[in-house]
Amino acid sequence: MVLFERAPAKINLSLNVLGKRDDGFHEVEMIMTAIDLMDRIALYPLAENRIEVSADNQYVPNDERNLAYKAALAFKDKYHINKGVRIEIEKNIPVSAGLGGGSSDAAAVLRGLDRMWSVNASPQELAALGESIGSDVPFCVYSTTALATGHGEKIRELPPPPSCYVILAKPNIGVSTRGVFQKVSIKELSHPNTNEIIKAIEANDFIKLCKNIGNALENITFCLHPNVKRIKEKMVQAGANGVVMSGSGPTIVGLVEHYSKAKRIYNGLRGFCEEVYIVRLLDHR
Ligand code: ATP
Q: Which class is domain 3-157?
């Protein structure tokens, strides 16, 4: 029987880089929250012991390079499953956008296969399994609001942020996360104050949240792609209460309280930037 899973995108309310570790990873501190822009995953059991994957997007590989494929392989290995699955991905999350689409697909496959093969693994176990697939996969297993530390794999769940509308503006370029991290020089970064953001979330204080959101990678991506900086400036001028880049970009995120303002900003940005969306935070109360 076919089984469906939702794979929501994430946005960063903050991304801080604390240092570089001996294993080559950077030590980060990120506050992420899931949004209601999502891929849809269908899982079909196969009689044969093999994994098939297909996505309806030219930028996503239909083979073992797909993160959803890697997730299925890791799950089968870990739980010694000798059955097969066909994974079909309806891609709605822009690719290489800083919105964690591939990681979310992988996490959805872990959750879905857990149900399909009645393994009953805990979210913690699935998150630990997800670590080997990608740094954002553990967060995506939960897809709520969380502080992620380490190289992104240590998850502490937080309450939902104040309710608001989220405008996403993505120019037609993909940003290489690795390329951005290679240019990190800790002293030159501007570091967001993670604790103040957590306090704002806990106090349900939208204005304080908007004042504190920030991303230490912004200036690096802005140097590589000056039009991303211009989109941020445009979103600020248009009156978004809080504006921040998600992940290593290029998506710029604007937070506003009211739909009428979100719509005005959306209309203003549409002629300026290829992809613009208005979405909401994913409700996880
Ligand atoms: P990251 O910061 O990890 O690069 P991102 O959100 O910016 O994440 P993704 O859309 O997750 O970017 O994908 C980045 C790369 O991963 C692309 O090169 C894409 O071809 C590859 N990829 C592999 N599997 C998937 C998938 N299921 N969905 C999207 N991209 C995938």
A: alpha beta
- According to CATH, where is 3.30.70.890 located in the chain? 165-280
Cα separation, 169 vs 63, whole angstroms: 29
Q: Between 49 and 174, name the one with better pLDDT.
A: 49
Was 150 annotated as part of a binding site? no
148 near 164, Cβ under 8 Å? no
pLDDT tens per residue across span 140-150:
999 999 999 99
In terms of residues, how long is the chain? 285
Active site residue 170: no
Which one of 10, 70, 76, 91 is the catalytic residue? 10
Residues contacting 261, CB < 8 A, separation 6+ = 165, 239, 240
> Known binder of ligand: residue 254?
no
Looking at ligand 1, which residue's alpha carbon is closest to its atom 17? 96
Does the interface predicted TM-score (ipTM) exceed 0.90? yes
> CA torsion 123→29→201→155, rounded to 10°?
10
Q: pLDDT of 16-35, one tens digit each? A: 999 988 888 899 999 999 99
Does domain 165-280 bear CATH number 3.30.70.890? Answer: yes
Q: Whose CA is nearest to atom 31 of ligand 1?
A: 102
Q: Which of 177, 173, 131, 133 is nearest to 12 (CA)?
A: 177
Pocket of ligand 1 (CB under 6 A): 55, 59-61, 65-68, 89, 95-103, 105, 134, 136, 177, 247-248
- For the chain, give every residue range classified as CATH 3.30.230.10: 3-157
The question of whether 78 is a catalytic residue gets the answer no
For 179-212, how does the pLDDT look when each residue is reduced to its tens digit (9 = 90+)?
999 998 877 788 999 999 999 999 999 999 999 9
Residue pLDDT, tens place only, 56-92 = 999 999 999 999 999 999 999 999 999 999 999 999 9
**For the whole model, what pTM was predicted?**
0.96
Instruction: Tell me, in angstroms, the distance from the centre of ligand 1 to residue 256's CA.
Output: 27
